[in-house]
Design goal:
- The chain has one domain: PRC-barrel domain (SH3 type barrels, Roll).
- It is globular and about 35 Å long.
- The protein is mostly beta strands.
């Protein structure tokens, strides 16, 4: 799958149904040696989609449960942004 196909997908937490943003607005942490994705860095958004300071969460790639047609489903448990 190409990054351009992933970028428009919304990240949804299955624990509480919260919308965490678009993958394209997040950063990926990639292992430079293996090329594997290690984690997502998701910035919390405020009104009108503007970033709210340094509010970011690092989500392990292992939290990703499914990549669907329009969204990426993750399980963060009780943890929230």
């Amino acid at each position: 799958m190409k990054f351009s196909e992933l970028a428009g997908k919304e990240i949804i937490n299955t624990f509480d149904g919260s919308r965490l943003g678009l993958l394209g607005d997040s950063d990926l942490v990639i292992n430079g040696r293996t090329g594997k994705i290690l984690s997502l860095v998701v910035c919390k958004r405020g009104l009108f989609g503007l970033a709210r300071g340094q509010n970011e969460s690092i989500l392990s790639w292992t939290a990703v449960k499914k990549i669907g047609q329009d969204m990426i489903i993750i399980d963060m448990g009780k943890r929230s942004l």
